[in-house]
Amino acid sequence: MKIKQLGLIGYPLEHSFSASYFKKKFRDEKIDSFDYNLYPLDNIKLFPSFLNNYQDIVGLSVTIPYKQSILTYLDEIDESAKDIEAVNTLVIKRKQERISVKGFNTDYIGFEDSLK
Questions:
Q1: What Cα–Cα distance (Å) separates residue 13 from each residue in 2, 36, 62, 103?
Q2: How far apart are CA 27 and CA 30, in angstroms?
Q3: What is the pLDDT of residue 114?
Q4: Which is the catalytic residue, given 67, 93, 95, 116?
Q5: Vertex 49 angle, CA 44 and 50, to 5°
Q6: pLDDT less than 70: residues of the chain
Q7: For a Cys staple, 37 with which of 7, 23, 47, 57, CB 3.0–4.6 Å?
Q8: pLDDT for the residue numbered 107
Q9: Catalytic status, residue 67
Q10: How far apart are CA 82 and CA 84, in angstroms?
């Protein structure tokens, strides 16, 4: 079985607990078809080559400083993310040689729920 890769892009990422959190979650829930890693990108212009170099990546979280600058690299943007003009989640689909990236913003859901 091919392991699908998930991860976090941003810079710097030394402070992030995401990888340890998801690795433990996957292990505890016996999810063995996914792995989660940190991918520090010191320049967002590296994103297209990053996608080409990591063929198994199917999803990414996006953190500072790229939540807005990543928008120019996306093929599609969810309506709520368009309104906010920032994304924190990417879904990556590959069909033959074509890579398609859609951006979402899930931050607003937590913020909205906290106001209720």
A1: 26, 14, 11, 20
A2: 5
A3: 53
A4: 67
A5: 70
A6: 108-116
A7: 7
A8: 82
A9: yes
A10: 5
